[in-house]
């Protein structure tokens, strides 16, 4: 049987995420991003569509490269205002039973001790449906919120991240034994003290000498997501990630990225097939091809090119406000910028892109490709993406929210189900079990397992 | 008309809060503290009982003074395991319309920039029902989770807290003008950039050079709660708090504490009546006095004296495991410890307390007094507390959860309503409006208002 296709919904607790300007569409509910109603409705739609997860992006700063300040970002609401993503999860968990929640948290600005408790709390409240998208940030403006002049250099951030991961793995995996909590009312023993140990972490960046505050949650360590494609990011993903988000303009480009990730994992002894890889993509689907094209044409009337260039400037570090709309976009010096730009341009190495064309592309679905058509046409496309690249599924951005996701759930999912390429029911168990089968806990081959028996060796808390 | 009586429910995201051992009672649902169901049910009970708020305590460490380690705390589940309180709020907000949420967050372990966004997010999602209980911590074990050897000295913590408050006031009150967000689809303007300003804070402990990430929420600054009774704590409360939590063993003691708080506020120019004061108390109510006494006797069968002394040791810094149960409790040297102990003993200066008697007292409702009886008897008592002390209401601890709160909502509240001493409906508007009338925003006489017009004077973000 062909590999099943998996869907994540790519969302953010803000107005304009990957499709700037679409908040102005009459059917779009982005203005309600700060109200629980929107999120409860969205969660119900996604669970109806058997999405594996809702993936919540986040930034802790402003896109202020365009024009040298945050004015354009504010005007176009490109990821500002932006509220905290974690706080959406408990309410959505209360109205769903299976939907997973992959939440972005930037470890540069969260002390590990309290953060570890937050994620354990969410894993308890969701009954094992929480994932963490590990990021180290890319905006200097976020660093200035934390009292620094600029963010830490890229490769140093990954060194700090390694220390951070060791600290939180110890808390999640190594502090409480599985049988620590007995809740024995007769004996008057809630927790057996000898089965809980202090974490003693004395790393280059973080120090902890305390037990974890939460009892073991269904998954202990949340499902680990990562999105780095730089050499340092790739090594980090190979060591830590269970799910990797990538993006690219063509199946050929994506196939090579998938191969690179799986090879990096294999090199350090992990089963390369044990990493699920999702690529960014936006689906515009309608009952017929013609209706889908008309829907896209309608959406494009609300696309916001300056908003798109504001995002691109933040992602690339290039101030697009300084360029003529008809100028050809030249080579970008910095690595992150080159990578973001090539996600658009690399599909056809011979094509030259103007600034205006880049803006038009980014304005609906960001740097990911658009797939437009009837359920049959879109299903054909997605099958080809999966079969030719080795990806496991898609991180679906929205154009109009929640309409884009409702269309996927109600039109595309049934078509994929008819083809036997999409599940017809959720698997039982925790998010990790739904994704990988087996146990709710991280596998023994994962680096976090090294910290699992730590509690047996340390002194009593 | 006599002053209305207000209720807060005193809760915590853990097993044993103020009544250690009662988790073993057959009707107690403490084991479900880590499940959403419990909290949704509780929220509905409290809203039915027209409680002003649910007050969530928190600690980020372990009560490890008793016996010199955390073993007793773990065994008796005295506030360990303990999950994050903020994450309970969104789910409860989704099933209520009026209930307020006063959440304890220790500013020693939360960088102000991300914390300010979290509280703004909650104020948005609750539509203006969030409050913050400002604490600086009292457990060295919490400091060790943050890589320190011990917590910062008491008075220094308040100096750091002053700097922290200035930073978050600037973010909440001074970054976005009220008319910054216009969401004008026609003009393509979500936020008017000129109406948002960067916060430039360069304090002794915290530095921020960034705009607030969230648009103005209904209350901007959450309702501010505080519980300090030391001289430094009293000064802090007088400057910042809108609601103060106190505790004490008798009406006489409470009356003098209320007077001290109101005088401290008046000295710095605040209207002393503008601070709402709640005292800790536990109500055991049943249809008749006899049934209430029987209920208490039944509860006492599950009381846990070692758990109580574990809490007392943490609060006082005195290791009660070293004392004979029949020994008289002597004078405690340190200020916090003396204050905690006097909350029990000061009602009758001539009475001597043994360790056993202290444990027995603390085991149900902590250091607060117990009021037991029929609705009429309890209502008489509570009226006397309010009328003789000048308090505004009670911070009600539970013995059995949620039974204690259900009894209050269903038996005591109707009695107080009949007497005209309790509201019969919630006021409309934000939590601040429900508590104080007037505006959802902090009053112009509050110190935070000094930062309100800051955005007019600073350069564009």
TrEMBL record, chains A, B:
Checking InterPro entries in the record gives: Diverse_substr_monoxygenases, Luciferase-like_dom, Luciferase-like_sf, NTA_MOA
The record, for Gene3D superfamilies, names: Luciferase-like domain
Q: Give a single Pfam family match.
A: Bac_luciferase
Signal peptide stretch = none
Name the SUPFAM superfamilies for this protein.
Bacterial luciferase-like (SSF51679)
- Record-level Gene Ontology MF annotations: oxidoreductase activity
Keyword terms of this UniProt record = Flavoprotein, FMN, Monooxygenase, Oxidoreductase
User: Taking every annotated instance into account, which residue ranges of this chain make up the domain Luciferase-like?
Assistant: 28-392
Q: What is its EC number?
A: 1.-.-.-
Belongs to which family?
Answer: Belongs to the NtaA/SnaA/DszA monooxygenase family.
Entry's NCBIfam families?
FMN_nitrolo
The name under which this protein is listed is LLM class flavin-dependent oxidoreductase
Which species is the source of this protein? Labrys neptuniae
């Amino acid at each position: 049987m062909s590999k099943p296709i998996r869907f994540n919904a790519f969302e953010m607790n803000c107005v304009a995420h990957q499709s700037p300007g679409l908040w102005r569409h009459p059917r779009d509910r982005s203005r309600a991003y700060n109200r629980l109603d929107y999120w409860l409705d969205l969660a119900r739609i996604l669970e109806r569509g058997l999405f594996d997860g809702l993936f919540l992006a986040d930034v802790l700063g402003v896109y202020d490269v365009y024009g040298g300040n945050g004015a354009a970002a504010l005007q176009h609401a490109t990821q500002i205002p932006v509220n905290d993503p974690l706080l959406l999860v408990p309410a959505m968990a209360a109205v769903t039973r299976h939907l997973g929640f992959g939440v972005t948290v930037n470890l540069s600005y969260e002390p590990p001790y309290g953060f570890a408790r937050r994620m354990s709390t969410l894993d308890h409240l969701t009954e094992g449906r929480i994932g963490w998208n590990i990021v180290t940030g890319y905006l200097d403006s976020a660093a200035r919120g934390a009292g620094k002049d600029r963010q830490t250099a890229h490769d140093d951030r990954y060194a700090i991240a390694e220390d951070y991961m060791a600290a939180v793995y110890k808390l999640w995996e190594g502090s409480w034994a599985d049988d620590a909590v007995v809740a024995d009312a007769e004996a008057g023993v809630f927790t057996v003290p000898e089965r809980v140990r202090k974490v003693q972490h004395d790393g280059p960046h973080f120090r902890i000498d305390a037990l974890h505050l939460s009892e073991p949650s269904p998954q202990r360590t949340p499902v680990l997501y990562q999105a780095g494609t730089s050499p340092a990011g790739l090594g980090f993903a190979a060591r830590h990630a269970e799910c990797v988000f990538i993006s690219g303009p063509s199946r050929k480009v994506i196939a090579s990225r998938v191969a690179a990730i799986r090879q990096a994992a294999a090199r350090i002894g992990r089963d390369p097939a044990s990493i699920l890889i999702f690529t960014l993509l936006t689906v515009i689907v309608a009952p017929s091809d013609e209706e889908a094209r008309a829907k896209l044409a309608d959406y494009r009337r609300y696309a916001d090119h300056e908003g798109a260039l504001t995002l691109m400037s933040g992602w690339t570090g290039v101030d697009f406000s300084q360029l003529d709309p008809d100028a050809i976009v030249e080579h970008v010096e910095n690595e992150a910028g080159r990578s973001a730009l090539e996600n658009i341009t690399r599909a056809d190495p011979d094509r030259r892109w103007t600034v205006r064309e880049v803006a038009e592309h980014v304005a609906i679905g960001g740097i990911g490709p658009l797939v437009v058509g009837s359920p049959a046409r879109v299903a054909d496309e997605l099958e080809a993406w999966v079969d030719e690249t080795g990806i496991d599924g898609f991180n679906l951005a929205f154009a109009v929210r929640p309409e884009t996701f409702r269309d996927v759930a109600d039109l595309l999912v049934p078509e994929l189900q008819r083809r036997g390429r999409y599940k017809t029911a959720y698997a039982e168990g925790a998010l990790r079990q739904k994704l990988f089968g087996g146990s709710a806990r991280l596998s023994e081959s994962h680096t976090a397992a090294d910290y699992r028996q730590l509690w047996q060796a340390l002194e009593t808390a």
